[in-house]
Amino acid sequence: MEVNSSSAQEKGYDYTFKIVLIGDSGVGKSSIILNYTSDNQGGLPSPTIGVDFKTKILTLDDMKIKLTIWDTAGQERFRTLTSSFYRGAHGIIMVYDVTRKDTFTSLTNKWIEELKLYSAYHDTIKVLVGNKLDLESSRMVTREEGMAFANQHDFLFYESSAKTGENVTELFEGLLKALGEMNKSAILTKLFDDLQRAGPITVHTSGSGCCG
Ligand code: GTP
Ligand code: MG
Q1: Taking CB atoms and a 6 Å cutoff, what residues make up the pocket around ligand 1?
Q2: Ligand 1 atom 20: the closest Cα is on which residue?
Q3: Which of 20, 49, 80, 165 has the greatest CB tally within 10 Å of its CB?
Q4: DSSP three-state, residue 62
Q5: Is 1 contained in some domain?
Q6: Assigned domain for 23 exists
Q7: Does 31 have pLDDT greater than 50?
């Protein structure tokens, strides 16, 4: 991850983050993005062709943030294309459908491996989202199963509904908060490194050293 690099920032923004959504076709990735980035909720998304992106500008804790949110197609035929977009992502949102077990098993069989192959897996904030929470009566994946997976693989966890909007803002804000924290600690680490590189900090001890 390119931490807080000024090259990654654009004028007027404190942070510019790239976020990528992945997961099987039909789980609601485009719907989540539409719900988050636009006020009007009209118009149903059709399956994404290849890759699409939307921009969102927001202020959080007095920081002006620009998000570019990349919406990838879940359909298998676009897989080689979409995986090339993972690179450089600061945040990954991996989505399944709580009413379709196969979209949950795909996480293990497919998406986790994809991420490890094509992204800076360990430097990225990762969020797991069980979507279609409004279809509670058709639920096939329990909240506990989702949470256990998230814990095991070091993801933040949310259940959402792109239809009602429940938890949609929350999941993005959770991701942004985590990104903010990561940047803060990265800035401190960098400061420390710079100080150390600036020259040896000589510690004078008494007595003669050695060694002839
Ligand atoms: P691909 O682009 O093919 O990868 O699919 P996608 O993950 O982008 O799914 P999309 O957003 O196109 O949604 C698929 C279908 O699920 C659409 O008919 C949506 O209206 C519906 N849908 C999405 N989110 C929800 C939700 O939270 N609740 C309900 N009930 N339906 C949803
Ligand atoms: Mg889509």
Answers
A1: 25-31, 44-45, 47-48, 73-75, 131-132, 134-135, 161-163
A2: 44
A3: 20
A4: coil
A5: no
A6: yes
A7: yes
